[in-house]
Amino acid sequence: xxxxxxxxxxxxxxSILNVTYWYVNTTAPPVIKYVGNDTRVMNGTFVKADWYYxxxxxxxxxxxxxxxxxxxxxxITNALRVCNNYNVPVNIRISDVSLLxxxxxxxxxxxxxxxxxxxxxxxxxxxxxxxxxxxxxxTTSYVTLAPGQCAILGVDLVIDANAPYYKTLxxxxxxxxxxxxx
Amino acid sequence: xxxxxxxxxxxFFLPTLVFxxxxxxxxxxxxxxxxxxxxxxxxxxxxxxxxxxxxxxLYSSPYAPWPYPKALEVKLFYPTKxxxxxxxxxxxxxxxxxxxxxxxxxxxxxxxxxxxxWVNFTHxxxxxxxxxxxVKLVDWYPGATERAVVTLNGSGWQFVQVGQDGTMYIWExxxxxxxxxxxxxxxxxxxxxxxxxxYREVAPNLIPPAVAPSSSxxxxxxxxxxxxxxxxxxxxxxxxxxxxxxxxxGPPPLRAEIGVTLPTPTGPVFDVPVVNNxxxxxxxxxxxxxxxxxxxxxxLYVYTYSTPVGLWGAVLRYNFALTALLTVKISxxxxxxxxxxxxxxxxxxxxxxxxWIYGPQPYRLCEPPCGVPAGWQEPLYVVVxxxxxxxxxxxxxxxxxxxxxPWRS
Lengths: 182, 409
What we know:
Number of helices of chain A: 1
Order of helices and strands of chain A: HEEEEEEEEEEE
Shape of chain B: elongated
Number of strands of chain A: 11
Strand order of the largest sheet of chain A: 1-4-10-6-7-8
Distance between the termini of chain B: 74 Å
Structural class of chain B: mainly beta
Structural class of chain A: mainly beta
Distance between the termini of chain A: 41 Å
Shape of chain A: globular
Largest sheet of chain A: 6 strands, antiparallel
Helix content of chain B: under 10%
Radius of gyration of chain A: 23 Å
Oligomer: heterodimer
Strand content of chain B: over 45%
């Protein structure tokens, strides 16, 4: 049958062209990220955020700096707020955690790091987890944000006591995935 | 003999004699016709030949014999042959003819000839005719009716190619459109050795197309010139010369850091390409090594080529998938050393070898991280100079078309 269909296509003599035109428009993003309240603690020593424009790809890239204390456990409960910018519910999740750059290869200074959805509660898996610098839980479950509602993301950090002070240890790519609901 | 016998004999003998003559004469019954043996006239001549009576105003070339096929026509009215000769060796045949009819005569003007030349037609019967060839020596490749004149400014060896669509490439990089596409290159009063290499699209429907050497597809004609300042290259629309293949060894392996650093859950990886297939093409002048390779997020189409002038080259074309990945290093081509920007090209110097690159930035460290490129990237054209003599791609100063005109009208 496939052969017959292929032969029929070969001998087709009639084609009909439907002309369409496509406008490319823009709209606002479904969520807007804001720095969390903990960025006010010690003038952003433990968490701060910024963004920059990548001219080669045209992307806006958000940086989030989190700072641990070697040998101690740091809980940042309000590092980033992600707010629904639409008038429909938006599902969000943290996804695809991956290690982008290890400034001290061979030294697992980042013993534990979790980025978690503090609010709204109730996600079956509300955090992504990094252990010994490798991501072991790369994606959370979705949580639903009502129009105007904000999710609060927090960070838990355990840095090895032998880690140097005032240094950047590693960079992770952590995506925030948004799915608008109809 | 009685009078009746004489009359009877004559009445029988004379018709018989006529009949026997008619049967045995070489021309049969033509033996009894009158009129000229033959006529000589101009035949099928190109537009640039001026004809006046039995005088042809022709061109000759310093580069090769200039053929004028079927330039003359001999109309024979008798079944015989006429002898042909010329005072300048313009006629190869020594005779034409046979049965009555028209016979073309090819003329070939020897290279470098200038002046008057007679083409003589003779017959043992005493018939004769002649055509005068007035020949002018011209700096033009024989047989071509038009040429592109490309004025270049540069130095060192340059590899020039012309595509059938008129695109002019220098070291594989498209540089200009020229009005005449052809296979014969004349530079510095010499006809250059040339090659023909076909190129095909590696992916359909791309604008501009991504092409690579192939055994099929559109042909490009190539030659090497050595520039010293401003000079002119002539490209003629003429058939390619049959030239011997130069003994050129294959291109050296492309030793370079090629890839993109990608994040993964366990740590960054350098996404290097893995070769899928390799094909070698040997032209009259070069050996080309075409390779397709694949990595996690891109495909790489690359060809390297060796040359007989001590340099070699490469062309790299990347097709990246659209991803949301960030990276800290994009190395499209890094043979080593520090990357420098000189004018519109990038340069690496590794030991005594200079790598000249035209195209997107071949190496970039992103601090902060940047996005991975998406889609087809502009090609990287690489010229590798171990000689230390090359000074970059030349400038194309002017391009014009010239058409051969009759030298007398």
